Amino acid sequence: HPRGTCERQGKALRTGRNLARQALQVGQEESRRGGGQRAL
Questions:
Q1: Whose CA is closest to 26, among 11, 12, 38?
Q2: Residue 32: how many other CB atoms lie within 10 Å
Q3: Which tens digits make up the pLDDT trace of 3-40?
Q4: Interacting residues of 38 by C-beta distance below 8 A, sequence separation 6+
Q5: Is residue 9, in this structure, part of any structural domain at all?
Q6: What is the DSSP letter of 38?
């Protein structure tokens, strides 16, 4: 398959990982603010 497909998949993987990390940080901050009421 064309190399562009690989590059696009790699970029999507990196973006997904960054989004997951951001969501994790936001969730931790929210749980800290809410006194840990909301368990993940």
A1: 38
A2: 9
A3: 788 888 889 999 999 999 999 999 888 888 876 665 55
A4: 30, 31
A5: yes
A6: S
pLDDT at res. 37:
64
User: Which residue reads 């993940």 in tokens?
Assistant: 40
9 lies in which domain range?
A: 1-32
Nearest C-alpha neighbor of 40 from the set 16, 32, 31, 18: 31
User: What's the domain count of the chain?
Assistant: 1
Tokens of 31: 């749980």
| Distances in whole angstroms, Cα of residue 15 to Cα of each of 2, 7, 20, 32, 39 | 21, 12, 9, 26, 25
First to last CA, the chain: 40
Note whether residue 38 is domain-resident: no
